[in-house]
Recover the amino acids of this structure.
């Protein structure tokens, strides 16, 4: 039990001692991505190997116990960053860390023998970029070019161990906050200029202030972990990778606004986040860091977790609180705002995961330090999930004001397979597309808004020239439409009609006046919809309409998809000289549209062709192509 | 407190809770579909969106007034957006307006006309769903629903019954009972308040006009009508009479002209109810059992107790409702070949109420094996039939009701307003009928539009504690407080509809609610004022009833036999 | 009609929570986790036990995508159609799975109750696009061929 400030210091020291007593630590990435590629298996194999191999011993608390061999810990960490190269494994030994990528079960024994028992690195498992092989994770450009505040601990330690969090300085911030007055804490957060990382960018300190001055005594701290934007997984990674930091941030908020209960609403698709958070909460309760009279002060705090049940709209504040209360997740009209009447109609601080996770460091290092990072209007860093047609897919954190070029080309390593950059979709279904001309603009909350997009929660999907922007618009509209709660007319009926029109256009049945109707619907929805999600739903369409209008027009007028992606507009042909007459395509064709004689070149009947592309995929000679 | 500038004109406000109220007070009409002042703000239709001087748009229904606000209600872009919203609603809506029961009274139809929507650019994306005719009171047609949620909120917030809810989401969203069951398979008490607040034809009265036309045409059928108190103050406004004016005489005359053989006034059995219920009350007080006595005249309330508070079933008065008493008496009277004249009798009950339709179908609504009430017509249906029959209501002379059941007292008339039953009981139990005594009773706290009223009256050396509630959510509160022992009453009067029968689910719905309730209630008290007989026990027909033809059948005709 | 054991199990689940409307969603989640669907009878039962109307329970249950009144297959396959997966061609994977199992946009579950195929807005595994999730396990970088192989594999496991 940690009952006062001194005991916290002692516990942290003991934990550090334990950590230093390890001869070697094997850190297996256990983010959702690496687990998918089999990292649990890798973890299991390492544990077994360490147990079985003479000279090393698997230990959980190296201090005090007597062990004959080298004390080795096998740990599960949060996301180590570049998910596409998983399973990722780090070996920490003698103050150095080696990063291995794409570790397969058969590599484990070699790792133990060479890198754990000895000091050899295994060249083929290192990260390679061009000719260079990188040993330390911090040297890899993908990581080296990032600035990590929220993700500071992610991937570096056992996300399931409170001791490791304490050893890394965990709860020092809470300790400091508890020695400050509540107003001082709020002032510090306010001065730091921290803005909500969930999309709106509303200053967190101002929100806390508003809650603190409500007359109602009962208040709540709620964390929005319903990261619903398709293409975003930053918050999930933080909940999995550093759950204690999030909770510490929420506790500081709780102390500041005199709330005694905190709720985290986690989306249904993140079972791992839920498990890690529960684990963290139970450990904190057991050690007395959650509950009544924390660290011997008059501050009491209890944590609760609510799992989402599959509704994107619950990422909207009032829908989220409605869902916690056991209702349909339908946004309500504002005012009153959540700070006045939030959860159970009580004043409520509602921020997202990343926002809370920034708080401990702000309290510890101070507002001035935080303001020294990022831009004047948007201090600090922002996490992004970098996905799509990019070389280094993964989770990154960069100072606000970093340019798209730095993110995509320096950190992201440019487009996959050297493809040509076309656009990056940012802000998910509420966002828009940035193009070539925005590559050198510094990104922050305010600048992105000017380009008809939003920073949003930080999903960044990179698109190459083979992406059809009309299809992208259709995709987002179909998402919004499917996820519309159905309460207000503009969003329910308006997005439905926008989707119908977009579907018509990608099928080649569009008319030019459809573009006017699209814009008419879009402006109406933006002005009249009830909630923020509804109001921003037309953005992907408006943004592509303004930047890529010519693509819309070629779908409508020429009945052509310039990116050759829209199935209904594709015209498949067989290049006679390349066709060997193997008949594979005609056998794969579900519509009997391909005919020919074995050994002679085959032909596609465009009237029968259903444009599924099965033939193209099946041709071993690349003889089938899509006509321009 | 402060001033708002609306369309360039300064408007003072005090404690109005939203900008919409102030706009309307200033005489400016902004369209709404989902706003009902007595319900919580929903903000879904977005039609009341207005613009401020910085170009910010917000829904007026949910915006708190602030001093110095400058707003515009009908700018070009607002008109354009509103028109598009209405077009979108129409596109996903059944457009068989001519055969819709709400034709001419439909808010959506009116708005479409106002905004000049002549073509719809979108196909209806909703699959055709069958309408639900299973309830004898209400027809639910999901194809006409615009998802404003008024019905759901009234059913939950005002009535505390909660039969309806939203199901599914997005464009699949619909209003429906649990598991999309038919209304007849739910706890619906048939109060009809959902239909009152429905802006379209999605919830309408299950009408029975054709059965009545049919009976009227049959020469071998004697068609008799009884008219409930609240009907007389709600018909006139449809024909250009001042709102709330008592039009009983004209209604009687019009019914006679339509071919009704006899027309009676339900106040007659309201008086009998008072006689019986007072007796029952004194009896229970004497024995000290089954208290509090719960009134039984409102069938929605009775159903509510049966559904949700079975433990209070024995507290309900065994008296039949005035409708059922009257129908039983009429059927019994004409069962005598001497009175029947070789015709069969068809009883039409004209009520402000949809629940009465359900009540008429109950198993206990039969006497001596025969159904008492053949058809219940609501005020709304009556007006339609008058119109269909070419009744010139304005010039219609007044006629009196027929005998031998044609006299009622003032106490019977005020049954139509919340507190009326209690006031009539008090009149019955109080000695003397001088104006001072009556005034004292009226001022005892029984009158007024509060949802829950408490009155304590000294009687025979004891303090009689009475509670009067209207709106079933209020009734629930009262029952819960009795259940928990927090409150103790001897007598509880409940009318399911807020304000009582004048605001019944079968009444015409034009105009604003508060205004309607006030004028109709005023009309009833005025009618009472004009009556010579104020007290039920002074109705000369009471004596005739108890000591005449029905002498041996009093209990069988006037009571339900619960045990 | 459900047998008595369902109600006993439901009682046990309800007993983990406060009896009011805030517990509706977690209770439904636990029931669904137990039976892989939400039997309508149990929803009505829960409503009565925690003191909310059936209409309210139904309205909440039908709002959230996760709840299903129909029994799901032993393997619930969720095909991610998030942005990242979409631009990396998740649609052919979905189509292959449906073809392979004889399912469609309307029919999600195979007759033999082995497989349910659904789409999901984003699994949060964008780095591994296109991804699918079978029960709680994520499968990365899917292709139509891998999907076919996976189905065969699961069929063999039975």
């Amino acid at each position: 039990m940690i009952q006062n400030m001194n005991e916290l210091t002692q516990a942290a020291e003991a934990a550090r001692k334990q950590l230093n007593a390890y001869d070697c630590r094997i850190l297996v990435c256990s983010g959702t991505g690496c687990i998918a590629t089999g990292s649990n298996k890798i973890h299991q194999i390492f544990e077994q190997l360490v147990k079985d191999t003479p000279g090393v011993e698997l230990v959980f608390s190296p201090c005090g116990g007597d062990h004959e061999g080298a004390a080795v810990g096998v740990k599960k960490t949060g996301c180590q960053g570049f998910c596409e190269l998983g399973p990722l494994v780090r070996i920490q030994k003698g103050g150095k860390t080696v990063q291995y990528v794409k570790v397969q079960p058969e590599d484990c024994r070699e790792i133990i023998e060479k890198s754990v028992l000895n000091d050899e690195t295994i060249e083929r498992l290192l990260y390679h970029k061009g000719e260079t092989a990188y040993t330390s994770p911090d040297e890899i450009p993908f990581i080296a070019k990032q600035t990590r505040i929220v993700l500071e601990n992610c991937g570096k330690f056992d996300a399931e161990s409170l001791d490791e969090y304490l050893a890394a300085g965990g709860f020092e911030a809470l300790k400091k906050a508890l020695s400050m007055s509540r107003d001082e804490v709020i002032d510090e957060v306010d001065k730091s200029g921290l803005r909500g990382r969930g999309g709106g960018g509303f200053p967190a300190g101002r929100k806390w202030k508003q809650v603190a001055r409500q007359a109602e005594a009962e208040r709540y701290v709620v964390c929005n972990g319903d990261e619903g934007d398709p293409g975003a997984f930053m918050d999930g990674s933080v909940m999995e990778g550093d759950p204690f930091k999030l909770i510490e941030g929420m506790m500081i908020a709780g102390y500041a606004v005199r709330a005694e209960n905190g709720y985290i609403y986690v989306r249904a698709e993140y079972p791992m986040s839920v498990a890690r958070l529960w684990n963290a909460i139970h450990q904190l309760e057991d050690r007395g860091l959650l509950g009544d009279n924390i660290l011997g002060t008059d501050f009491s705090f209890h944590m609760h977790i609510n799992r989402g049940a599959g509704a994107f709209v619950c990422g909207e504040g009032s829908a989220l609180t409605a869902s916690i209360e056991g209702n349909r997740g339908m946004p309500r009209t504002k005012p009153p705002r959540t700070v006045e009447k939030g959860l159970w109609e009580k004043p409520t601080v509602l921020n997202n995961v990343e926002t809370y996770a920034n708080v401990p460091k702000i309290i510890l290092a101070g507002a001035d330090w935080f303001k020294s990072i990022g831009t004047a209007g948007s201090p600090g860093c922002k996490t992004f999930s970098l996905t799509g047609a990019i070389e280094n897919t993964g989770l990154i954190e960069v100072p606000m004001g970093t340019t798209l070029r730095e993110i995509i080309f320096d950190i992201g390593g440019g487009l996959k397979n050297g493809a040509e950059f076309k656009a990056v979709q940012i802000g998910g279904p509420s966002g828009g597309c940035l193009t070539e001309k925005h590559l050198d603009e510094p990104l922050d909350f305010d600048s992105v808004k000017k380009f008809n997009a939003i920073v949003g929660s930080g999903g960044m999907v990179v698109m190459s020239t083979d992406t059809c922007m009309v299809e992208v618009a259709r995709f987002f509209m179909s998402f919004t439409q499917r996820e519309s709660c159905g309460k207000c007319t503009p969003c329910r009926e308006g997005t439905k009609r926008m989707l119908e029109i977009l579907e018509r256009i990608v099928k080649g049945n569009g008319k030019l006046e459809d573009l006017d109707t699209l814009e008419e619907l879009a402006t109406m929805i933006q002005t009249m919809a009830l909630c923020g999600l509804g109001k921003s739903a037309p953005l992907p369409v408006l943004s592509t309409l303004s930047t890529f209008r010519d693509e819309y027009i070629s779908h409508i007028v020429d009945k052509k998809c310039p990116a050759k992606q829209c199935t209904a507009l594709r015209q498949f042909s067989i290049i006679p000289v390349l066709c060997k007459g193997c008949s594979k395509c005609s056998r794969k064709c579900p519509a009997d549209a391909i005919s020919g004689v074995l050994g002679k070149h085959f032909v596609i009947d465009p009237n029968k062709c259903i444009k599924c592309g099965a033939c193209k995929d099946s041709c071993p000679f690349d003889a089938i192509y899509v006509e321009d | 407190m402060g001033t708002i500038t609306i369309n360039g004109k300064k408007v003072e406000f005090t404690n109005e809770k939203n900008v919409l109220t102030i706009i309307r007070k200033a005489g400016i009409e902004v369209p709404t579909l989902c706003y009902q002042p007595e319900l919580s703000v929903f903000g879904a239709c977005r039609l009341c969106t207005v613009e401020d001087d910085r170009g910010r748009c917000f829904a007026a229904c949910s915006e708190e007034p602030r001093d110095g606000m400058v707003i515009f209600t009908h700018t070009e872009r607002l008109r354009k957006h509103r028109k598009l919203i209405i077009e979108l609603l129409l596109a996903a809506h059944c457009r068989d307006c001519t055969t819709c029961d709400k034709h001419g009274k439909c808010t959506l139809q009116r708005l479409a006309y106002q905004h000049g929507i002549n073509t719809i650019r979108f196909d209806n994306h909703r699959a055709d769903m069958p309408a639900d005719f299973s309830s004898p009171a209400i027809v639910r047609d999901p194809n006409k629903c615009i998802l404003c949620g008024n019905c759901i909120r009234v059913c939950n917030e005002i009535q505390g019954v909660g039969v309806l809810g939203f199901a599914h989401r997005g464009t699949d969203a619909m209003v429906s009972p649990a598991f999309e069951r038919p209304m007849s398979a739910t706890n619906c008490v048939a109060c009809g308040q959902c239909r009152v607040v429905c802006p379209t034809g999605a919830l309408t009265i299950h009408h029975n006009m054709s059965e009545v036309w049919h009976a009227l045409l049959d020469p071998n059928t004697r068609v008799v009508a009884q008219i409930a108190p609240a009907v007389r103050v709600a018909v006139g406004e449809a024909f250009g009479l001042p709102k709330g004016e008592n039009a009983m005489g004209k209604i009687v005359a019009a019914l006679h002209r339509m071919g009704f053989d006899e027309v009676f006034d339900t106040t007659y059995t309201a008086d009998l109810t008072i006689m019986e219920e007072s007796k029952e009350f004194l009896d229970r007080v004497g024995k000290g059992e089954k208290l509090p006595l719960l009134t039984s005249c409102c069938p929605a309330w009775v159903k509510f107790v049966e559904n949700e508070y079975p433990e209070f079933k024995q507290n309900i008065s065994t008296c039949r409702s005035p409708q059922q008493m009257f129908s039983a008496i009429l059927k019994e009277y004409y069962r005598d070949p001497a009175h029947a004249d070789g015709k069969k009798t068809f009883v039409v009950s004209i009520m402000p109420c949809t629940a009465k339709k359900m009540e008429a179908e109950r198993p206990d609504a039969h006497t001596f094996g025969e159904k008492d009430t053949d058809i219940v017509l609501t005020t709304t249906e009556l007006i339609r039939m008058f119109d269909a029959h070419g009744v010139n209501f304005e010039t219609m002379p007044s006629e009196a009701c027929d005998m031998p059941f044609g006299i009622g007292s003032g106490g019977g008339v005020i049954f139509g307003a919340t507190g009326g039953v209690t006031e009539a009981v008090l009149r019955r139990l109080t000695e003397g009928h001088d104006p001072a005594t009556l005034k004292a009773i009226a001022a005892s706290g029984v009158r007024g539009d509060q949802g829950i009223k408490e009155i304590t009256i000294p009687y025979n050396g004891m303090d009689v504690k009475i509670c009067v509630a209207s709106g079933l959510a209020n009734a629930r509160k009262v029952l819960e407080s009795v259940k928990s022992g927090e409150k103790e009453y001897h007598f509880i009067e409940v009318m399911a509809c807020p304000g009582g029968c004048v605001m019944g689910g079968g009444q015409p719905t034009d105009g604003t609610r508060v205004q309607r309730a006030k004028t109709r209630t005023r009309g009833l008290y005025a009618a009472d004022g004009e009556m010579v007989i104020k007290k039920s026990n002074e109705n000369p027909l009471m004596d005739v009833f108890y000591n005449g033809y029905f002498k041996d059948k009093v209990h069988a005709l006037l009571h339900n036999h619960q045990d | 009609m459900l047998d008595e054991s369902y109600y006993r199990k439901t009682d046990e689940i309800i007993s983990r929570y406060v009896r009011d409307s805030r517990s509706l969603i977690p209770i439904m989640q636990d029931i669904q986790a137990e039976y892989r669907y939400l039997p309508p009878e149990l929803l009505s039962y829960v409503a009565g036990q925690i003191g909310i109307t059936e209409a309210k329970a139904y309205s909440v249950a039908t709002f959230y995508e996760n709840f299903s009144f129909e029994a799901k297959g032993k393997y619930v396959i969720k095909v991610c159609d998030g942005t990242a997966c979409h631009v990396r061609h998740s649609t052919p994977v979905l189509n292959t799975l449906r073809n392979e199992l004889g399912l469609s946009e309307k029919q999600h579950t195979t007759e033999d109750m082995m497989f349910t195929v659904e789409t999901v807005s984003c699994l949060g595994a964008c780095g591994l696009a296109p991804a699918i999730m079978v029960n709680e396990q994520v499968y990365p970088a899917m292709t139509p061929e891998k999907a076919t192989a996976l189905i065969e594999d699961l069929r063999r496991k039975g």
